[in-house]
Design goal:
The protein is α/β, with parallel strands linked by helices. The chain has a single domain, classed as Response regulator (Rossmann fold). The chain has helices spanning 12-22, 40-53, 66-78, 90-93, 96-106, 115-119, 130-145, 167-172, 179-184, and strands at 28-33, 57-62, 84-86, 110-112, 124-127, 162-166, 187-189. Strands 2-1-3-4-5-6-7 form a 7-stranded mixed β-sheet. It is globular. The chain starts with 11 loop residues before the first helix and ends with a strand. The mean pLDDT is 89.
Length: 190
């Protein structure tokens, strides 16, 4: 579907800030990316700049298949990952249960691009509401079906982003959620 832009990759810097609020002692931040996704290079570059500005080291791990996700988490565990940023990627977005299970198994606090990861048991997410984006796509399709030309319709971008925190996961990881972060959350899963 065209006409709806999710604005996911540019939020990597904000995700770094949020995971550092939850894991302030983390000196090394890991980032899991799909090297075949076109936005990956830009997102890594942005997060790298933010990591340096925050006095942190960024390590990237690649995965573009289901098996490689498992391998990447094993490598994260071997390197004692302190915090994880999961990059925005359509393939990753189809695997929230796998990501949440692996993060829990290896005890890795992670931040994800969509609430679906947190609903599956992930720690925190920050990004566009997929449900909201799908609603916009439906409205767009309705306008086209009513005769409007797609070329005449503007690209729609989200104006709000949601932060979701899973308190049960935070507790399992031994993390306290700072009150200010808790207060800013759009949704808290207990």
């Amino acid at each position: 579907m065209t006409g709806v832009h999710l604005i996911t990759s540019p939020l990597g810097q904000k995700r770094l800030e949020l995971i550092l609020e939850l894991v302030p002692k983390a000196r090394t931040i890991s980032m899991l990316v799909n090297p075949t996704f076109p936005n990956t290079e830009m997102e890594v570059r942005d997060v790298q700049a933010a990591a340096i500005a925050n006095g942190r080291e960024l390590r990237t791990f690649n995965a573009s298949t289901v098996a490689e996700i498992d391998e990447a988490f094993a490598a994260l565990a071997d390197q004692h990952a302190e915090a994880l940023i999961v990059a925005s990627d359509p393939f990753f977005s189809t695997r929230p249960d796998q990501f949440a299970a692996l993060a829990a198994r290896h005890g890795i606090p992670g931040i994800y691009p969509f609430r679906e990861f947190v609903a599956a048991g992930g720690l925190i997410s920050y990004g566009t509401s997929l449900a909201g984006a799908y609603r916009e796509m439906g409205r767009y399709a309705g306008r086209i079906l009513k005769g409007e030309k797609p070329a005449d319709l503007p690209v729609i971008q989200p104006t709000t982003f949601e932060m979701v925190i899973n308190l049960k996961t935070a507790k399992a990881l031994g993390l306290g959620v700072p009150p200010m972060l808790h207060a800013r959350a759009d949704e808290v899963i207990e």
